[in-house]
């Protein structure tokens, strides 16, 4: 498989407040692969996506590292030529309330594929049908407020497909939806990924979503990746105490495993008052003196399995 | 859409009837017009004759019914002051006021809206700070004081523009400028904050993620949304211009409805005052109706219900 995206030592800061949101992020993504980013709110998952898509909000800057797309050298990509498409957490508010679904899709088809008039309309209908919206012809005249959240997320996905992306970034795509809709959207993403061969970066705080869709997962905490592994490896042999704790927090419906979820004590520290050393040590049961002295260098502990911890959990 | 407009129309008529009634009663209870119009040493016979001549000796409900019946026939009565038809007295002032208010409205939009858009697009820049400083200044200086300052600078000091009257187009410049600057300041501030609010919405971030060029995001995606609250503000501004004409027109001796209203109130010319209040109400109701309709045109959430 060929590499699509390589992120090296990515640092993202808020200069005005002298805060590092991302501090030395490394990962790569192969064509057709799915990477899941998992972690609690505020650990930098979404910012990683925005940095990769080169659309950080104002006041937040990439101050170090590189984001490289293959083929080609370091990314000079401007937002005007996307091979990247994004879908968001709250689909209804991510759609412009004054434009019809048809305008939204047809203008994207013109921008990305040069389609106009009835060609654009036919293709928009095909895309809507592809993402599971029936009566597509009349739906083109509808406005986002007339659709449910799940339908709007389908529209967002159809819109993303219009760009024929090589990489689809899904930032908490199912968090605002109910479970049945969540399952349908995840299924749709799986199908489309197989059909188009695009890569997928999916952000979620729900390990279940990551497990379902991703090939590899990166566990993030306070702007650093603390563990990366294949999803199967991560779920079976979580090595970082934080990854372990996240898995213990998952609710199980297995009748043989009714152990109550184990909450992680405390909460994510604020970025302007990060603890020294490993940022997780104040919440970690295994912490020792060296944990508060220096951040542990990532160590390879298995096939493509890296962890940054002085006291990894034994398998 | 037709039903929507019909409902608003019926509501507008109800507001009009209510206002006419309220104004009629309040004006009758607020003083004896005979004593205001005639000199202080007028005898009781003179007062009685005045009241009988204008029907003021009848009971208020009776007067009201007469008044409404006449108004429905288009007869607003005769001015106490000079005996001319109220319709003529008020009618000849309408174009004068419209010239000033409509020009001021257009000029304030031409200045305020682009200034607000630029300030929002270049947020925190020197341009933004300059526009906002100007807006705060324009907004906090009272209308009439600004007018007096203009008269002093351009008419008394520089002697380039006339200070009062309405005989040439030049006479309109100072009243229009006074009105327009004040309202441009209000519009610029509101346009800026509305656009900044819209630009922070998730659908704008999504549009950026899609690689849509900046100007297209502003004009196609942000402004159509910002226009919805903006229309409400424009309605307020238009209403404020009409109401403000009572403040500004006397400063420039501009013979429009505003100064006419002030004169008629001072002399107790009831039929004129009354007709003018009804006319102001009609204007306000019409503005609100236009705002409601524009709101429905601009906002699909309202249109589809």
Characterise the protein shown here.
The complex is a heterodimer of chains A (315) and B (305). Chain A is 30% helix and 23% strand. In chain A, helix 3 (117-130) packs across helix 5. The longest helix of chain A is centred in the middle third of the chain and has 18 residues, at 179-196. In chain A, strand 6 (167-171), helix 6 (179-196) and strand 7 (199-204) form a beta-alpha-beta unit. Chain A is globular and about 70 Å long. Mean pLDDT of chain A is 88; it is low at 72-82. Chain A is of the alpha/beta class. Chain A has a single domain, classed as P-loop containing nucleotide triphosphate hydrolases (Rossmann fold, 3-Layer(aba) Sandwich), CATH 3.40.50.300. Chain B has 305 residues and is mainly alpha-helical. In chain B, 79% of the residues lie in helices and 0% in strands. Classes of the chains: A alpha/beta (315), B mainly alpha (305). Chain A binds chain B through residues 53, 55, 57, 78-82, 85-86, 88, 90, 93-100, 108, 111, 143, 145-146, 156, 159, 163, and chain B through 201-203, 205-213, 221, 224-225, 228, 298-301, 304.
């Amino acid at each position: 498989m060929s590499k699509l995206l390589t992120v090296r030592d990515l640092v993202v800061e808020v200069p005005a407040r002298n805060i590092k949101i991302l501090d030395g992020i490394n990962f790569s993504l192969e064509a057709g692969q799915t990477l899941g980013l998992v972690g609690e709110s505020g650990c930098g998952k979404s910012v990683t996506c925005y940095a990769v898509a080169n659309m950080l909000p104002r006041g937040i800057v990439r101050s170090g590292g590189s984001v490289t797309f293959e083929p080609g050298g370091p990314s000079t990509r401007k937002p005007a030529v996307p091979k990247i498409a994004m879908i968001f957490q709250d689909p209804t508010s991510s759609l412009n309330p004054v434009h019809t679904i048809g305008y939204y899709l047809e203008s994207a088809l013109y921008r990305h594929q040069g389609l106009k008039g009835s060609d654009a309309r036919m293709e928009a209908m095909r895309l809507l049908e592809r993402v599971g919206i029936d009566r597509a012809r009349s739906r083109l005249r509808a406005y986002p407020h007339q659709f449910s959240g799940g339908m709007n997320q389908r529209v967002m996905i159809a819109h993303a497909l219009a760009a024929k992306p090589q990489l689809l970034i899904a930032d908490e795509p199912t968090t605002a939806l109910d479970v049945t809709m969540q399952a349908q959207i995840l299924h749709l993403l799986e199908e489309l990924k197989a059909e188009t061969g695009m890569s997928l970066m999916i952000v979620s705080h729900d390990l279940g979503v990551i497990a379902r869709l991703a090939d590899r997962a990166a566990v993030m905490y306070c702007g650093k990746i603390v563990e990366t592994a294949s999803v199967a490896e991560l779920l079976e042999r979580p090595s970082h105490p934080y990854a372990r704790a996240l898995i213990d927090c998952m609710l199980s419906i297995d009748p043989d495993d009714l152990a109550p979820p184990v909450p992680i004590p405390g909460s994510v520290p604020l970025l302007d008052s990060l603890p020294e050393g490993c940022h997780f040590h104040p919440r970690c049961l295994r912490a020792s003196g060296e944990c508060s002295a220096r951040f542990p260098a990532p160590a390879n502990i298995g096939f493509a399995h890296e962890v940054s911890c002085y006291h990894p959990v034994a398998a | 859409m037709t039903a929507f407009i019909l409902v608003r129309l019926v509501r507008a008529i109800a507001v009009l009837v209510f206002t006419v009634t309220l104004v009629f009663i309040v004006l009758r209870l607020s003083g004896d017009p005979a004593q205001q119009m005639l000199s202080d040493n007028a005898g009781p016979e003179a007062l009685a004759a005045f009241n009988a001549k204008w029907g003021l000796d009848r009971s208020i409900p009776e007067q009201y019914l007469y008044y409404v019946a006449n108004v429905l026939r288009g007869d607003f009565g005769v001015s106490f002051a000079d005996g001319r038809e109220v319709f003529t007295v008020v009618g000849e002032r309408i174009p004068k006021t419209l010239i000033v208010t409509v020009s001021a409205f257009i000029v304030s939009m031409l200045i305020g809206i682009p200034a607000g858009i630029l300030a929002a697009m270049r947020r925190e820049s020197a341009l933004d700070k300059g526009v906002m400083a100007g807006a705060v200044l324009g907004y906090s200086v009272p209308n009439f004081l600004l007018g007096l300052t203009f008269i002093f600078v351009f008419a008394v000091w520089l002697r380039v523009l006339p200070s009062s009257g309405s005989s040439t187009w030049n006479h309109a410049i100072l009243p229009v400028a006074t009105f327009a600057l004040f309202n441009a300041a209000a519009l610029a501030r509101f346009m800026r904050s509305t656009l900044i609010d819209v630009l922070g919405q998730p659908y704008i971030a999504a549009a950026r993620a899609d690689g849509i060029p900046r100007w297209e995001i502003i004009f196609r995606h942000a402004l159509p949304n910002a226009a919805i609250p903006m229309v409400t503000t424009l309605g307020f501004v238009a209403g404020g211009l009409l109401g403000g004409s009572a403040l500004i027109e006397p400063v420039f001796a501009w013979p429009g409805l505003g100064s006419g209203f002030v004169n008629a109130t001072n002399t107790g010319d009831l039929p004129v005052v009354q007709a003018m209040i009804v006319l102001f109400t009609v204007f306000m109701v019409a503005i609100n109706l236009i705002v409601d309709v524009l709101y429905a045109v601009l906002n699909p959430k309202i249109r589809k219900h």
